Amino acid sequence: MINSIVGESTKLKGDFEIDGILRIDGFFSGKIKGKTQVLIGEKGIAYLDLEADEIIIGGKVEGKIKVNGKVKMLSSGYLKGEVTAKNIIVEAGAYFNGKCTMLKG
Hints:
This protein is mostly beta strands. 0% of the residues lie in helices and 68% in strands.
């Protein structure tokens, strides 16, 4: 169940602490921290500093990503920046440009 949504026509900037599932289909710029799963929809654009449990990227993300679990890039996903995670899944067609650090465990 999704707890929070940034809709397609929404532009949101700021620092947020969130628990639960966050879906971004619009524009987001800022910091997100919490026990959360972040979903970036195909039309979503996020410039972020993220500390979370998991992120699934179907849209565009630029920034610093640190997750305790996995980063999953869908075929429509674009990621530019630094990634720290236990697992990274990149589907064929996804774009990744940056630095990747794998966590043990």
